[in-house]
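Example S7 (structure tokens).
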């Protein structure tokens, strides 16, 4: 039986080989006056053979019987192009570049008058012909919006929302799924992560995208239902940033801009440069691009800390932030074509994000009866760097295609010393001054409450005007130095990647593709800290009044959006120069300072230091079968094996209060088998109905896998807090149904539904376990059994070209996504005897908003482009803490941006961009919206500049 099967297989290959020898191949590229066109459809009219151009605008039609044929080239925004070709037996026909002429760019009833329309046409053509459910943004379209980093560029896509840091987009989430359930790729490889300044970034797999300049992006591909050739850890979606590479013709593009931030009443500026060309024989191509953006930023922040039992206010914090951010990047691309069948490529990228953050914070401690002032400054630098080298090889017949690449990408984060600082540390510096203080307006029990939490007979504060109400006045001379902190931020992550893919086309209707990928990851985490406690006391005090001062608030006032609530509560801090002087070597040698080193040797901090290795071995097989001109079936599976090794510290506090620290190493592995099926039905050329079943997963966060264990024998029962190397990844069975119609005048209307059945959702659990014959209270991440997420999305992008005259340039671009989810969450409370009671409740997934929408009104006609865009994200559960009354929620947020450009000449375009026109705040609350935890305002900011495209 085995011999018969092998004979049959050999016979099929032999017949295919003979068939190929008698048939020919036609290949070439498609372009218009704006350059090569990806996503164009090329068909042989007589045979129903079709092929789509790739991202370089190239196509190949294979296994064509000898004869004379008519090629029909279709592309949104153009009338069809007709080209005659003759195929001889065994011949390879290079038809060169098939060009849409100026006449062919004119549609029957519509003339594409906007100079930016071709970019959107590229994106929609790629999306229309994609195998999976995908959204695409092209580089020029990114420039149509005031989006200066990769996160803000992606937020305009249907179902996408972002999280911000001091007003700038940082993290991307798709369809409301948790951040770590979405993968971010650079040229098809997972982008390594790094620690950011936001608390929710610690130890996660989420990439901070504000470090990635949007000017370096050629395309953004968002896959909501992936195919087997895409990395499988993408429950929410897979965002692939394709960097710019060698152009098809000589290109020189320059951009210069300047701007203003109203929050700090200060400016910003930016510039970018791109040059690329090809050799005379067109075999060698190269490109180098660079960008630089420096901006002043500011944030007015209020934070409130509540007692978890009665919601009394423990302290109120008023924080005035300002700083300078700098994003710089260099991107290069090289390509060498030996001939039409073989080429090599080399890409490299380097970005440097630097955030010089300064803050003065007034902290009103109602329960401790004191008032504190923190003054801090630190420069956090994050680098992304790496590159890839590979090749693409086609057989002369076009039946076989082989591509390969090896890549290395890494990120690191470090604290950096300001150039003019006298500090001996390259650290994030913080000083604390304090004085005793009592407060007015307290309840009979001596506590401060909001009105919604007030005990009977007491009227608390409104959440809209929570004031400190100090009992007396405070001068800088009253504030005494108590503590200095120098925090050394640091993390590192590096990925080595090797991959290869083999594609075989036995016929024009069927393609089989297989490939393998190896990724070796190494990471380090841990932020050492030096704390200097000042023990001078009353005999040798250092008062803030004796030091050089700095105003609070900084430019722009403080929380003026809330009226004059805090105008009398502000107090100046010390200057940044003075902060650096406090950390000079001479001052820190003062014997009245007591130093505490928070590092791997300190019991209080050893648990936060760990290293890890993750090796991923992946392989896939997929088939793409065109049953007829309307029906296409894509199916296959992906298999990923992950091997993990982590090293951390075990910290044990004994009953005599002595502490033991020893290294600990844990290993684990798991397999992920991921079947996938896509069905694409096109009853008309511009109309697709897509169905997809995909199985995907999300690996546990790095911090959850950290084997570090903190064990204390002092409490009853003793406690253990640790990571869990044996965590299973969260899996999802995803079902998607989507309909999409593409307008000839470059637009789309789409609607779809989706459902995700979840397994092994990861959460932090508390339980009682018997370990080493003793009962412990154990806190560690665990896997829950199940959960689900479902929703629908609708969208439209339509030029109102049917309107008369000048109004025909109007258009609308809007999309809405509704998402609902559920998972079981443990809740903890205590009875009268102090025993822990554990119950469960059904809660939405963290960071999942029910309602997300983008809406834009645009005008594009001739030389003018104007766009007003709004982005809305509904409320979302941010942190599960204690019981539902203590949950931290992200409040709804709606921002409005404006962009406009005018083409002064064929080579020069002027533009203006304005962000946050409505000055929308970022807001978090606890339990109910009338109990704020955090409130931030950023005011309006904008840029204006000029783009010069010399050639």
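Recovered sequence:
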């Amino acid at each position: 039986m085995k011999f018969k099967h092998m004979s049959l297989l050999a016979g099929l290959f032999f017949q295919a080989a003979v068939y190929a020898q008698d048939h020919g191949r036609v290949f070439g590229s498609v372009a218009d006056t704006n350059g090569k066109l990806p996503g164009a459809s090329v068909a042989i009219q007589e045979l129903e053979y079709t092929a789509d151009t790739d991202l370089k605008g190239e196509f190949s039609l294979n296994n064509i019987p000898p004869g004379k044929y008519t090629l029909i080239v279709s592309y949104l925004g153009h009338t069809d192009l007709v080209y005659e070709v003759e195929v001889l037996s065994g011949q390879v026909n290079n038809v060169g570049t098939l060009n849409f002429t100026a006449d062919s760019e004119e549609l029957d009833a519509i003339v594409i008058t906007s100079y930016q329309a071709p970019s959107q046409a590229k994106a929609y053509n790629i999306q229309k012909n994609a195998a999976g459910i995908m959204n695409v943004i092209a580089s020029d379209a990114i420039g149509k919006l005031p989006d200066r980093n990769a996160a803000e560029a992606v937020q305009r896509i249907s179902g996408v929302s972002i999280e911000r840091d001091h007003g700038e987009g940082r993290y991307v989430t798709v369809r409301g799924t948790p951040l770590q359930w979405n993968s971010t790729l650079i040229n098809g490889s997972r982008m390594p992560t790094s620690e950011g300044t936001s608390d929710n970034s610690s130890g996660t797999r989420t990439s901070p995208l504000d470090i990635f300049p949007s000017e370096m992006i050629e395309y953004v591909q968002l896959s909501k239902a992936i195919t087997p050739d895409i990395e499988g850890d993408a429950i929410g979606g897979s965002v692939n940033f394709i960097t710019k590479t060698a152009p098809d013709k000589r290109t020189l593009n320059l951009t210069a801009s300047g701007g203003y931030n109203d929050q700090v009443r200060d400016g910003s500026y930016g510039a970018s440069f791109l040059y690329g060309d090809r050799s005379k024989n067109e075999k060698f191509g190269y490109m180098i691009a660079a960008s630089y953006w420096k901006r002043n930023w500011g944030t007015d922040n209020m934070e409130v800390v509540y007692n978890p039992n009665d919601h009394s206010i423990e302290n109120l914090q008023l924080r005035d932030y300002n700083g300078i951010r700098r994003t710089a990047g260099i991107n290069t691309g090289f390509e060498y074509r030996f001939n039409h069948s073989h080429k090599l490529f080399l890409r490299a990228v380097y970005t440097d994000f630097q955030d010089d953050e300064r803050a003065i914070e007034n902290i009103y401690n109602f329960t401790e009866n004191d008032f504190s002032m923190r003054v801090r400054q630190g420069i956090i630098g994050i680098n992304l760097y790496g590159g890839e080298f590979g090749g693409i090889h086609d057989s002369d017949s076009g039946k076989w295609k082989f591509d390969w690449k090896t890549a290395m990408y890494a990120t690191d984060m470090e604290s950096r010393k300001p150039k003019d600082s006298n500090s001996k540390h390259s650290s994030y510096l913080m000083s604390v001054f304090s004085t005793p203080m009592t407060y007015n307006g307290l309840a009979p029990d001596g506590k401060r409450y909001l009105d919604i939490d007030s005990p009977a007979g007491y009227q608390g504060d409104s959440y809209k005007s929570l004031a400190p109400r100090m009992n007396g006045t405070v001068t800088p001379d009253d504030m005494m130095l108590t503590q200095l902190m120098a925090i050394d931020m640091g993390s590192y992550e590096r990925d080595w990647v090797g991959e290869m893919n083999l594609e075989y086309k036995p016929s024009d209707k069927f393609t089989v593709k297989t490939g393998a990928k190896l990724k070796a990851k190494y990471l380090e985490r841990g932020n050492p800290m030096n704390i200097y406690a000042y023990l001078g006391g009353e005999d040798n005090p250092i008062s803030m009044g004796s030091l050089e001062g700095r105003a609070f608030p900084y430019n722009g006032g403080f929380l003026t959006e809330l009226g004059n609530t805090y105008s009398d509560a502000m107090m100046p801090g010390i200057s940044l120069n003075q902060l650096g002087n406090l950390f000079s070597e001479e001052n820190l040698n003062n014997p009245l300072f007591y130093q505490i080193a928070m590092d791997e040797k300190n019991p209080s901090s050893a648990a936060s230091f760990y290293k890890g290795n993750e090796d991923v071995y992946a392989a896939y097989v997929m088939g793409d079968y065109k049953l007829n001109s309307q029906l296409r079936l894509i199916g296959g599976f992906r298999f990923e094996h992950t091997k993990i090794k982590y090293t951390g510290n075990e910290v044990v506090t004994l009953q005599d209060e002595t502490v033991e620290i020893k290294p600990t190493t844990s290993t684990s592995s798991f397999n992920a088998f991921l079947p996938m099926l896509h069905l694409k039905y096109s009853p008309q050329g511009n109309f697709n109905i897509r169905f997809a079943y995909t199985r995907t997963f999300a690996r546990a966060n790095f911090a959850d896998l950290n084997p570090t264990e903190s064990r204390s024998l002092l409490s009853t029962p003793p406690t253990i807090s640790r990571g869990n190397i044996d965590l299973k990844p969260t899996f999802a069975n995803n079902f998607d149904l989507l309909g999409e119609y593409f307008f000839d005048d470059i637009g789309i209307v789409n609607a779809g539904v989706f459902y995700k059945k979840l397994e092994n959702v990861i959460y932090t659990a508390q339980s009682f376990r018997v370990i080493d014959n003793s009962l412990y209270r154990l806190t560690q991440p665990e896997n829950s059994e199940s959960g689900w997420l479902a929703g629908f999305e609708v969208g439209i992008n339509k030029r109102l070209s049917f309107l008369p005259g000048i109004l025909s340039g109007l258009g609308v671009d809007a999309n809405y996504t509704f998402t609902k989810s559920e998972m079981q969450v443990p809740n903890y409370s205590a009875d009268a005897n102090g025993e822990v009671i554990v119950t469960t409740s059904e809660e939405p997934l963290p960071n999942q908003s029910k309602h997300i929408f983008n809406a834009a009104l645009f005008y594009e006609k001739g030389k003018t482009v104007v766009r007003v865009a709004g982005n809305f994200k509904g409320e979302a559960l941010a942190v599960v803490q204690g019981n539902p009354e203590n949950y931290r929620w992200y409040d709804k947020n709606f921002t409005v941006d404006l962009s406009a450009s005018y083409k002064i000449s064929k080579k020069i375009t002027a533009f203006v961009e304005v962000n946050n026109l409505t000055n929308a705040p970022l807001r978090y609350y606890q339990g109910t919206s009338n109990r704020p935890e955090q409130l931030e305002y950023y005011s309006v900011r904008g840029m204006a500049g000029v783009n010069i495209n010399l050639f």
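Notes on this example. Confidence is low (pLDDT under 50) at residues 1-20, 103-113, 143-147, 196-201.
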